[in-house]
# Entry
Amino acid sequence: MPTGNPGSGLTILTGPNNGGKSSILECLRARLGNETPSFTSGTRNKDVELVEVVYVVDGKEQTLRSVSKGSSETIKQDFTKHPGIFVVPSRKTFSPYFSKGVWSRQDFIENASLPPQRSAVFSHFEYRLFNILQEPAKFNELLSRILGYTPEWTIDRSDQGPYFLKFFNSGHSHSSDGMGEGLISIFSIVDSLYDSEPGSVIAIDEPELSLHPALQKRTAGLIEELAKDRQIIVSTHSPYFVSLVALANGGHLARVATGTDGTTIHQLSDSSKEAISMLADRNYYNPHVFGLDARELFFQEDHVILTEGQEDVMLYPLVAEQLGMRIAGSFFGWGAGGAGNIPYLCRILSDLGFKKVAGLLDGNKTTEAQRLSESFPSYFFRCIPAEDIRTKPARGAANEVSGLLDAKLTLKAEHRDATSTVLAELSRHMDA
# Structure
């Protein structure tokens, strides 16, 4: 729930392909519109041959259920207040030539419906384009924040009658038929955000599709900012959309997994979110502990190996190669940043439903390994038969080094002016 802090209203859904993330967003989409959705035989679970979705809106249950076993048709029970969710599907392409219609945000939500089959086309999105064109300033402002520039565009009409999206570039123009899929995706994402109000609910499926990493990063930053006073649900395969700021401010992360027990949803506890915040925030000596590589953790299927440091990640495969062996599993990021961090990572993995987790510790960490085994009995922990992964020479005493910041990480007064000059010159160079 949004509290005014960046990302506090953000919910992040992760999980493997075919795990059920899109189905969750489709459940939200099925609640919209005035007509009851139909579920084809191919979309229903064949084991039970019916559909039942229970929504909780302002603490009260609303139910969408099959009229009978084996039927495609549904009925609504106790549907009163409309949650007003704006849902953007994963496939955001729209027809390059379209008819005219001007849909406000409310029009779009009220006319939204769950198609009988997943489609590669974002139906009726073109009607939103006519709405944007009436007052494009706010839309273009958000668009430029993601793209880094504001494209010149409008809606034109062909002599044959259909309308099309028109772009200008270096004195030339082309239709939306010549647009890259990434730009099309950005248009639909920005459309879901630009006219939203505080208290709005927005769900975006796979916003990263066809987007360059730089655009993913900017899109994720914009979503995090707007989620201070809006509920935004993002289903994603990209670590760029796992916002550590959001998790620290009360946002949620849920991992959807499929196995022998069916589809299950595991959500981070408050203690795990506190651990992530602690490991990631101002960790100057180990900034990689929850860097981009480490955030891939939220997308792995299972079989995670935890080690103390980055050398371990690099050298254990070398050890296995010399032994003629193969290590089954994936190493976590660039190490945990010390044995003391491994319990926090195990708590996070346990919350998210990981079953195959192992930890390799240095030979002098037997006490820590024993505690880990007691706290997480289903996980595997062992110490190597040496004090460290490699032999290291003795270190002599080092002279003090005078830095820009003092011991309290405060910029020293004698360096303020010179540092300000350097950073100003840097900014001018980058902005030129």
